[in-house]
Amino acid sequence: MFESAEIGHKIDKASYKAAVPTLRAALLEAQIDLYEHKKIPVVLLISGQDGAGKGESINVLYEWMDPRFLSTLAFADPTDEERERPAMWRYWRSLPPKGRIGIFAGSWYSDPIRERIAGTISHKELDARAAQINRFESMLVSEGALVLKFWFHLTKEGQEKRLKALQRDPLTAWRVTQWNWDRLKTYDQLQEVAGHLLRTTNTAWAPWVLIDGSDDRYRELTVGQVVLDAIRNRLASPQGHQSAVAPMVRVDTDGRNVLSQLDLTLALDEKSYKTELAHWQGRLAELARAPAFKNRALVCAFEGADAAGKGGAIRRIGAALDARQYHVTPVAAPTEEERAQPHLWRFWRHLPRKGHIAIFDRTWYGRVLVERVEGFCTEADWMRGYTEINDFEQEMTDAGAIVVKFWLQISQAEQLRRFKEREQISFKRFKITDEDWRNREKWNTYQQAICDMVDRTSSSYAPWTLVEANDKSYARVKILRTLCERLEQELGHDHAHEHGKAHKDPKAPKADKHKSKAS
After folding, report:
1. Are the beta carbons of 505 and 278 closer than 8 angstroms?
2. Do 282 and 222 lie in a common domain?
3. Same domain, 347 and 485
4. Long-range interactions of 9-14: CB distance < 8 A, separation 24+
5. CA-CA distance, 35 to 335, in Å (whole number)?
6. How far, CA to CA in Å, does 240 sit from each of 146, 275, 342?
7. What is the pLDDT of residues 155-209, one digit of tens each?
8. Is 97 exposed, middle or buried (0-12, 13-18, 19+ CB in 10 A)?
9. Is residue 265 part of a domain?
């Protein structure tokens, strides 16, 4: 893997001085084009051996380019805030927007390499991390990013020589610590682990560039030229694939699907509703304060037909919680800032830390629902959206989050009744828009997209709960009950908890029969 970086590349001083002015001017011009067009972001990863010139290469890029449009992110051990969220959270929140270059000193490769050398993950687990990285980088590229990955290499003898030279110079001696010398002892392990990881993540969409770090002039010119050529080529080429290789076709031969089989007549009378609401809100309040929840987080995702009652259900959840413990994120059309990032970025930034709750009023499923149906993204975009969403929810779950997803379903007739009611009530008129009426015309198309969504993204770790929502009282109680049951299961509570042991849902036999939890 590293043979080409060990043949002793060198650039003489005269050649270097002659090449730099032209290269610097071209880099600045390409950077200005990148910024003005705002077509793509550039994600630049700097990795490699200690003493191989990683920091020096970053400094040279800042010298040769306009630092106003560069950002450098250095990643060491995660902070307490970062440990309380999925491992990729700190990288997602640091992604550069379109038109800018983000330099990552340390990246999503650092942890798996370190953990494998330390023996805390197996070879199989390393391969699983590599596959996850490949999907992440594929997503970045599909979203328009240019991903450049540099690995700066030194032989073991070369690394020892470089560390000694740095230590002798009073101006650079501070950069060499006992930690660096200890790392030199694991050189062979690093070569084996890094070599394997680089091979398995050397993809067509994000290949590795291996650079001999023994000669400063060679390294600097090579990095500058690779960055220049990559930006020029990317700006000159069209963006990604615009159609799926194998378009998805849904066929429900008998006319039955997960939505058509819901019993929308399910309802609760007013007395039962008040009793049930008070019970499940009280239980949710207890669970949210339970000691075990301090090491977990809860992510509630609400989707549903227009006027299905998402807002009312969310308010009943909030009424049971401490306002300091939860946050509701309403999701509408992306802002200009959000459009400059991958589509999942705006959801990653709102993930809760441990002991907290995030409630999303509409979610990341917009990619496979409204964006699909309305043509706001290409077929290839929403087709890959299923995999990206599953990865996102898996990462949340792996980090300790409890992901609970609700789809609220109502009939067309009930939706029409609620639309007309909203038009007649002054404080509800803001809820009904021309877009809501237009969406009714595409009812069947949306139903097909919803069924595809459930089939392709309902998992054991983040299942969909389909809620019969023609009766708001029934829907609200089912949502609260589902939340409590899921929390009890995840937190290890006995389902026959004393608080609920004697409680009997008057509608339980019928409601349980039609729970409609897709998995």
Report:
1. no
2. no
3. yes
4. 9/212, 9/214, 9/215, 9/218, 9/222, 10/215, 10/217, 10/218, 11/215, 11/217, 11/218, 11/221, 12/217, 13/217
5. 19
6. 11, 55, 14
7. 888 888 888 888 888 888 887 788 778 777 878 888 899 999 999 999 999 999 9
8. middle
9. no
